[in-house]
Amino acid sequence: MEKMKGENMNAHINTDHSDRENMERLLQILERLKQDCNALIERPWQKYPDNITAKEPLSGKWFALFMKVRGNLIGLPSSAPVQIMNVKADPDFIHAINHSEGFAPAYHMNKEHWLTVRLDGSVPMDQVMDLIQGSYHMLCDTPTRRIYEAVKKIPRGKVASYAKVAEMAGNPRMSRAVGNALHKNPDPDHIPCYRVVNSKGELAGRFAFAGEEVQKVLLEADGIEVIDYRVDLEKYGI
Questions:
Q1: CA 216, 220, 225: angle at the middle one, nearest 5?
Q2: H or E stretch covering 122
Q3: Strand pairing partners for 159?
Q4: Rounded distance, CA 114 to CA 232, Å?
Q5: Whole-prediction pTM value?
Q6: pLDDT string in tens for the chain (238-residue length)
């Protein structure tokens, strides 16, 4: 009887150690997502405090879901809690891998487009991060996001035309989409849309910046000369 107690105690210690390792692994993943993807890490469901989402801040879409579930719910023989994540993936890849060690058909989600991955060390960390990055790009790599990322690359002291931004975003034919995206700029502090002008170097006007002088003042603060609400693209264009 005493021996059984000792075995139970050792099992409890091992479980605690395993839980700590899994938690450290999860925290490491979340920290990398904040650094690499600028992800918003949230616990959106008060009823399920262990459920964590990683969201792309501009679109508001979440690309990874982390939670604890009973092992038997994802095909394991034990009902002990297991830390998992759900990510989006290519259906062919899901079909090929979802019964391999560390993987399972998506728990509580569309099993054709989502995949469950155990975060208990059975899948190497590099592969876990690759899967998350793949999910991120599948869900969040939209034309609008590419436009915002292109505008972020316009350096201080320079401007770009709508056509140039469209080219930088990967599609020279979407100049009109650039204008629409910038009109809805969700983060002006980090997406400097005032550095975008038309093909003649002309400023956008009051409708875009809540005042006719706003874009002019911002560009001049960057060291750009503005004459008659126009910028010399030969001198300042990228």
A1: 95
A2: none
A3: 237
A4: 50
A5: 0.65
A6: 333 333 343 433 344 557 788 889 999 999 999 988 889 999 999 999 989 999 988 778 899 999 999 999 999 999 999 999 999 999 999 999 988 999 999 999 999 999 999 999 999 999 999 999 999 988 887 888 899 999 999 999 999 999 999 999 999 999 999 999 999 898 899 899 999 999 999 998 766 777 778 999 999 999 999 999 999 999 999 9
